Amino acid sequence: MNIRRWGVASLLVIALSTSSVELWAIEISVGAGKRRIETYTYLDQELLSLNDLAGVFSLRLRENRSSLTIVGERGEVLITDGRPLVRSGDHYVLLTAGVWKRREGEWYVPQDFLLRALSNIVSQKIEKQADGSFQVKRLKTNRVRVGMESYPDHLSVIFEVSENAPVQVREFRDYIEVVFSDFLVRPEQVASSPDARLVTSVEFNEQESFGSFRIQKGSQFSSFRQHYLESPPKLVVEMLGNSSSMLALSASADPLLGQQPGDLKSGGDRIPRAAGISDVVVIDPGHGGVDYGVDAYQDLSEKVITMNVARRIQEELSRRSVNVRLTRARDVQLPNEHRSAVSNFYKCRLYVGIHLGGAPSSEARGPVVYVYSPPTNATSGLRLESGQGEPLFIPWEKGQSEFLSSSRRLATSLQSELNRLFESKNSVVAARLAVLAPVRAPAVVIETGFLTNEEDQQLLAASGFQERVADSISNVIIRFLK
Amino acid sequence: MKEKRRIILAVCLVLVAVLVSYFWLSSERERQLAVQDVGSEPLDVETAVLEDQSLGEIDVKLYFYSAGAVSPGSGFLYSKSETIYETEDDVLKARQIVNELLKGIGKQQAGQETETRSPLDRTRLRNLYILDDGTAVVDLSSDLVNSIAGGITSELALIESVTMSLRANVIPVTSVRFLVDGKARETLAGHISIAHPFR
């Protein structure tokens, strides 16, 4: 009697189970062709046959009793029978339903497994279409070049990408993680850190989805900032040090500044000139932050254009192997004395300030290049000399005095080059510019047209013209450096 | 008869009321006109003193920025004659010159593209004194400094105008030093150093 009851009950359970499973299929478009994947609707969940998926995506399956490891081109996923939590590399992914082992070697996964887990380990991009089918495309490659630039107050880690992909920057205890998506990341070049106190290393993590980078924090790291730049697309992660260590950092961040004057004179390979002058060209984009400079129509302000031009000069000169540093790498207010200090910090070979003109009359137009004009009645100031006649101490406002003629030479070349571009006949102007006075190198300030003049304004609003201005300036700098 | 007398009395009362109203309104209108004739600008101490001295008026040569000029030197400024009160006090003379200059610069800027410029009508010279060595110390308000158009040319135009005008008209002045809101600043408006006097 008991056996008969159990038998009937078992038959009922089997019948119910069978009736709740329906056999369907979804289409996956792979390139031009289409592949069908068996699906089972089991307890209202549409499940996909993993064996079929393995055929489409060239997966290898390693079964271990109740768990299964799925190995793709870019990584592996571990799934366990009946559980919705799957492990993908270092991360866990929660699916909408548990995976199902129907029998030995026959596994089923919910649909979101494709987008949330499988896409992390295959080299194809999987997209769900409006009709419920899936489209599989070969993933495009995002070539990422990682560079680093050392500044007096921070270290910039620059990710120059070939594709404008979405990116996430996340902070963890020991590292900052930069995760790119949509494209398969291929690191082309990862620069080594110039200062281990802020960044010890930048590592590429192939296991993470499309590929990610980890910026390992140094002992002096305190916080970070990020910003995005266009044309070419770049992500800049600024690693900031704690303020008490910045002074020490400033003194040693640049290898040139860590040396004594005697070391410089004895001559390292990087210092071809005497008197400790480095090969750095400092470009100073004027204004910034709450200081907009000259404002014009159409939300055009001096601080934006100066930054665009400065960045273009940096790109152009870097392309020609010139070591360029910007005084400000972001939209921030910077006092004049800090700008001069940055130039002297780098012991730069030349300094070029980028500004735009403003005049009481709208008729003033064209570029004007300024050089420093010392006050006629200024006292000579304190000048201590070493035994060899080398100055040991130069008053702050007298820094430029020994470079007036070379600055004038640079300014004349720039003025005539820019006059050609603007079709103007302006001359070099000598003025008491506070930013130039302390600079211990040939130094000029260029006003690349007047924002108070309608004609100049229209020219400068066009990014193409900004590039032409930057290229003209770069050409003169290259000629001057030779 | 009694009725007739009442009517005449009423008419007389109305006539008296009309006449009183007329005379009151007329006197009020005259008072209003008299008020309008009074100058609306308050008389400052400087002008009151100069009027009181009754030394007459003199012409001075003021220097203004020439529209379109970009390089200080010949043609950067143009001169224009203005009349000020005659005085034997050099500081009072210098103050009048700078005030006239600032008014002129204000008109010059307000007259063009007012949507991008702040007229200087609210700005004032805060103070001016002349040192024994011939340095005129000109203390400008930050309102004035903030309202110039921006750019190196604008700053140079203001500095050159004030320096040239004072040197040309006030004999003891040989150089001009600028302060802003009573304090020495690194630059006038972000570009030109005002740490040393201008000649």
Number of strands of chain B: 5
As a percent range, the share of strand residues of chain B is 15-25%
Strand order of the largest sheet of chain A: 9-10-3-2-1-12-11
Query: Level of helix content of chain B?
Result: 40-55%
Largest inter-chain contact set: A-B, 43 and 34 residues
Assign the CATH topology of the largest domain in chain A: Aminopeptidase
From the N-terminal CA to the C-terminal CA of chain B, the straight-line distance is 99 Å
Considering DSSP H and I runs of 4 or more, what fraction of the residues of chain A is helical?
Answer: 25-40%
CATH homology group of the largest domain in chain A: Zn-dependent exopeptidases
Summarize the helices and strands and which ones pair or pack.
The complex is a heterodimer of chains A (482) and B (199).
Chain A lengths: L1 H18 L1 E10 L2 E10 L2 E5 H8 L2 E5 L2 E5 L4 E5 L4 E4 L2 E4 L5 E4 L2 E5 L1 H5 L7 E5 L5 E5 L2 E10 L3 E8 L5 E5 L3 E6 L3 E7 L8 E7 L6 E6 L3 E9 L4 E8 L1 H11 L7 H6 L13 E6 L16 H18 L3 E4 L9 H10 L4 E8 L10 E5 L11 E2 L5 E3 L10 H19 L6 E3 L11 E8 L3 H8 L1 H19 L1
Parallel strand pairs in A: 1-12, 13-17, 22-23, 22-24, 24-29, 25-28
Antiparallel strand pairs in A: 1-2, 2-3, 3-10, 4-5, 5-6, 6-7, 7-8, 9-10, 11-12, 13-14, 14-21, 15-16, 16-19, 18-19, 20-21, 25-29, 26-27
Helix pairs in contact in A: 6-10, 8-10
Chain B lengths: L1 H36 L7 H9 L3 E9 L11 E9 L4 H21 L14 E6 L4 E6 L1 H6 L4 H18 L5 E6 L19
